[in-house]
Amino acid sequence: MNENRKITMKDVAREAGVSLGTVSKVINNIPVQQEYQLRVDAAVEKLGYHVNRYAKALRMNKSSFVQVILPNLHNPFFAKLADCICRALAARSYEMLLMLTESDYDREQAYIYLSEEQMVSGIICLTYNPDLVIPSGIPAVSIDRNLGPDITCVSSDNYAGGEMAAKKLIENGCRHLAFIRIGSSLPNETDKRKDGFVRACTDAGIPFHCECLNDSASFSEIESFLSAHIQHGKLDYDGIFCATDLLAYQVLAFLTENRIRVPKDVQIIGYDGVRHFGDQKLVCSTIVQPVEEMARVSVNLILSDSSQRIPYSIQLPVQFASGGTTLF
Amino acid sequence: MNENRKITMKDVAREAGVSLGTVSKVINNIPVQQEYQLRVDAAVEKLGYHVNRYAKALRMNKSSFVQVILPNLHNPFFAKLADCICRALAARSYEMLLMLTESDYDREQAYIYLSEEQMVSGIICLTYNPDLVIPSGIPAVSIDRNLGPDITCVSSDNYAGGEMAAKKLIENGCRHLAFIRIGSSLPNETDKRKDGFVRACTDAGIPFHCECLNDSASFSEIESFLSAHIQHGKLDYDGIFCATDLLAYQVLAFLTENRIRVPKDVQIIGYDGVRHFGDQKLVCSTIVQPVEEMARVSVNLILSDSSQRIPYSIQLPVQFASGGTTLF
DNA sequence: TTGTATGCGTTATCAG
DNA sequence: CTGATAACGCATACAA
């Protein structure tokens, strides 16, 4: 047990009666004579030595930290993403430097710039700033947003998810569909949820309406929209696809308040796969994002030492799961 | 914009025509001649210089990282805690190094040891390992668990919360109370939730039962307990205090399945203050932990440079909030 | 193979 | 008040 002083390689070298270089080799698993190996190991054990990662980072110009930039952690989707990324990193002996932006453009950019002085080994970010610039030289992955040709974008298969939702609703008997969304007005991978939905509706010849509001809108505007379509206690739509589970949750609450029965009168499908308390029941019927795999893939991309040509965009398969707001 | 090479203080010094020391002073806001100040600032701007935090950490033997150790992020209480801690740190220009343990004793200890080589400025942890040893010399705060006299324990006022829950149920007309808990068998600040509950019941002369299971137990054991107390479609208790919102959520789901109406037949109060999607409606009536303040207090303690005597234990006030599982 | 010496980018100590 | 220089702990090129 070292209590006061800082144990360095020098101390270990002295204790083991070998040179600094030899200790370094042993620490880094570079072959040395068995004899020395043992002596150094013993000294390390005895003194309780451990490497100073900052000295190492300084020397190597590279650290074991990966910067993860997310809007927040109270949104359960982001929380789960952070959770999975952290585990995936830990499995490879990397640590997560987590930064929260609340989607503020300036903060997003500031944190990215910070990454340079942090000498992080990579960046995984989920941002909204359209003009975000990422320093070249640092491996980066963006979740759900295309940041340009240098940055691989990892996302769920939003298009297929949208299609899947529409098909499921139609298959469940719905004949008047609606798509609802509140989100960034900037182009985004998640826009494809709508595209897939529209495609499936069109293909099936089912009438539909899309209600897309941008970020600044509050849910009360959705309420107005829904209210305007409630006549004689009945909603004009019998199937709603919401761009997120949060939205689905809010729509569900509003409709229930207005005595419209879900899933009897109207079926609702969300997107994300959020569960109560992270691991309990689904909040609603939903298109489940493969969060764990998205995290693993992102981490692998960041940490793949080879500068081999990495794909521009990776879309992971989604799945429908019934969570009580659809008949099946 | 620097693209390829690494800009160091030396570069800035050369550009500004001053010495290294002067640049360092300017960077660290140590007064220098106006003239030099300006020249250095200009050079910094021009070259896009930023400090290398590892070199700084190495030299200062201290970094701007704070290690945060939590079981996971899918539990919304932990997620919110991490969220608040991260913001509180960011407000003081510190970064969060987040590590997840899933309550594994060994991993908890391993991460704590890691903190030494990380030269972190502090540790905020929520752990379960009864034998956890924290290196002296690193400011540390433990959430909800007493780790010994050196480590300040920050928690909500669990005792008052327990009392509050019992009083509220009684005030709402309940006459047969139950306390339910699944948790660590090791002594823990959260045990006081029961103590306060018991005290309030005793004081009021209201009969009560405590069902306390330890970690290894699954919810099905609680189901068995509840089932055993359902007779002719009625539950023996008309008020239940659950040690966590998660438990309250599970109990609520089970009772609802068994056609016992909440809050009409039985009222339920949880503990934590978890909201759907982090910021929507409460999951249940609950004793709300002041998570934001707990985070802020923890961060302040960690970062208070003075080694002044810090209190052994800090308990922050809680509040009752109705979330639909109580009459009022 | 192993040991020695140098430099990574800072801050801090001294002379000037 | 400023400039040169020595550490901080490590990895590595080079010498032995």
Describe this structure in words.
2 copies of one chain form a homodimer. Chain A is an alpha/beta fold and 328 residues long. Chain A folds into 3 domains: 9-51, lambda repressor-like DNA-binding domains (434 Repressor (Amino-terminal Domain)); 60-156 and 292-316, 3-Layer(aba) Sandwich (Rossmann fold), CATH 3.40.50.2300; 158-289, Response regulator (Rossmann fold, 3-Layer(aba) Sandwich). Chain A has 11 helices and 14 strands. In chain A, helix 1 packs across helix 2. Chain A is elongated and about 90 Å long. The model of chain A has no long low-confidence stretch (mean pLDDT 93). At the A-B interface, helix 4, helix 5, strand 2, helix 6 and helix 10 of A face helix 4, helix 5, strand 2, helix 6 and helix 10 of B. Strand 2 of chain A pairs antiparallel with strand 2 (95-100) of chain B, so a sheet runs across the interface. Chain A binds a DNA duplex (16 and 16 nucleotides) through residues 6, 8-10, 18-22, 24-25, 27-28, 31-33, 36, 51-52, 54-61.
CATH homologous superfamily descriptor of the largest domain in chain A: Response regulator
Q: Under CATH, the topology of the largest domain in chain A is which?
A: Rossmann fold
Using the alpha-carbon principal axes, give the shape of chain A. elongated
Widest beta sheet: strand line-up of chain A = 2-1-3-4-5-13
According to DSSP, the number of beta strands of chain A is 14
Largest interface: A-B, 52 and 52 residues
